[in-house]
Amino acid sequence: MKWLARLFALMLVPCAILFFLLAAMDLAMSRAIFNADTYRAALSREQVYQELVPNLLSIMVDDAHNNPQHGFPFDLATLSERLDDDDWHTITADLIPPTWIGEQVDLVIAVIDGVTRGQFGIIDQPIDLRPLKNSLTGPPKEAAVDALLATLPACSDDEVATMQQFFSGGDLLMPMCQPPETLYDAAASRISTWIESIGAQLPETVTLSSLDVEAIDLQAMNLLVNINQQGIALLFVCPLAILSLIVLLVVQSLRSFGRWTGGIIMLSGLMVLVSLLGLQAITLNSLTANWQLADAQERFIGEIILALMRSAFLSSSATLLVIAAIFFSVGFVLLLMSIYGPSHDDNASAALHG
């Protein structure tokens, strides 16, 4: 019957390693996903602003192309071709305040932190839109329009003719170029009026609850966080229970105890390192897939997701390395025990001589 017990114990070994791996992965990913520092690292104020502002123009172009009913009065496709990211940053530096963007990033992080801590009062905290509203309706708007027209190339003769028809009421899109002096004031006024209309539609304040973010939804997410934390403990208990069963089945001495348990824990540490390489491959594949996205809005969202993935990967990698180090240390000690500890024969001999 010993061989049958040994065979059953060998069958349990992969199960123990799998549960150790799942527990390590779940712990590492949970510490990354439910940690506000992960989002602070990924959604840094400067990074979000640098990625958001250039993509706004591309998103507007795509929206104008896909939804003509939105009625953009300008040839945005030409505008996106004539402005690079640096130009767009310069033009919108005052129009979309970087500090205001940073405050909204902090708000998103605070919501995530509230979910993990069970604090949901932030959904009723007012979000101040006045800095953005004032920029779109005040002097920064005029500065942005002047900077835009100064950056654009001079209008060709055809574009001047099209612009004249546009101002005469023709059903055309206004060319985005630097108009001659006779049309400059009209072009600047039309762009300025359009920007001001956007700012006029914005309320001074808004709350997350008014944007259909309900406390009950955040509470449900918090419940999932708590369930996951309990699940991590259960995942670590399962392999320990399997190890105990293996010990009962085949261990007859301190040496065999160290050999079986040490080997299993060392293999678990090795699998944790392999999974770390797998996470790195997934992150790289996601980066490649994002490069292939054609839609500007999808690319922008993809860039944010990739930033989160990179931050989560760095955080979870540190946790996985610590877990692997613990597994290897414990496994090494147990294997040393299998070498220097008394065997079953030693115990039997000691019993006879006693």
How would you characterize this protein structure?
It is built from 14 helices and two strands. By secondary structure, it is an all-alpha fold. It folds into two domains: 168 residues, no CATH class; 168 residues, no CATH class. Strands 1-2 form a two-stranded antiparallel sheet. Helix 2 crosses helix 13, helix 3 packs across helix 5 and helix 11 runs antiparallel to helix 12. The two termini are 29 Å apart.
List the helices and strands and how they pair.
Layout: H1 2-33, H2 36-42, H3 45-66, H4 76-82, H5 85-92, H6 98-117, E1 127-128, H7 130-137, H8 139-151, H9 157-167, H10 181-201, E2 205-206, H11 215-250, H12 254-291, H13 296-340, H14 344-353
Antiparallel strand pairs: 1-2
